[in-house]
Design a protein that fits this description.
This protein is mainly α. The protein has four helices and two strands; from the N terminus they run αααββα.
Length: 336
Amino acid sequence: MLSDQNASLQSQLKSLQTELESTQQRLQEAESASSWNDDDNWNQTESEDVALRKELEAEISKRNATIEELQRHVERLQKALNEASESADMKALEEMEEMKHQLTMVMEQNNLLKDSEARLMDHADEYAEQMERHRERCVELQVKVTELEEKLRAEQLERKAAARSVEEFSVLRQQLSTAESSLHHTQSQLSNREGTIAELTKKLAEHTKTIEELQMKLKTLAASRRQVTSSQRPSTSSQNPVTPSRPSSRLSTSSRMSTTSSFVPEAVSNPLQTSGSAFDVVVPQNMLKIILKMDEDIGQLQNAVARIREDVVTSSENSEKYSEKTSEEEKNPVAV
């Protein structure tokens, strides 16, 4: 720290000395210039030269004072540096004495350790015997610890097996209760299905009877229609063909028949005519209404028969499905 300050002050001192020399040189140049002025500088007064000289002398004196102050400061720092170096030497001597003291203590401890080592070497055989005894004791204890661990493991396995048995027993009991409830549910379903089968059988018999009755009615209506159409069949002469004077509206009863019916009436050779020539047979209006009404009744009966047949088929299929499912459940009872 002090050496750094001393170096910086010395550098400042050198710079000031350089500036002082440059100032003195300027002063000399000014004096020489004032004595050797040419004709153009005769107007410069003597007072200005004196002022400039005084200013330069003041600056030189100021710089000299600064240099003296810096020299004194450098001397103080040099003195402090010398004192610090002397104190550092003293500190080094003290540290050396301390290290000597520590070295003495370490040597004493080393001697003590050597004595202890000698005593330990004397007791080495005894320590070896003790170590062997301890090793044998450790082996015996290790065997006992292994036996105790095996016993503890066996007890843990027994406890786990008992807990597992309890869990399995509870699971089996739950499965038994579930199976019993499932059995009761199946029995109730079976009884319900038996009742449903009986009801479906009854409905099937009723539908069969209704179909037979409707078929009888259909046959009766078809026979009545054939009789009506045969009684109203026109009788035309083979020598005089019929030449209608104006277009007639012909009614075909066979075209009004439903295609789904299995009872198709006999085809009429000549269609009925509501109006025509003088030789055409005129069918009464009420008879036409009767025929149309019979056609509508036949169509309705045929549709009813088709619906009943579909219901019968559906009921039969459901009954067969219930029977098959019941037989499968009887063959495969619930395992408890």
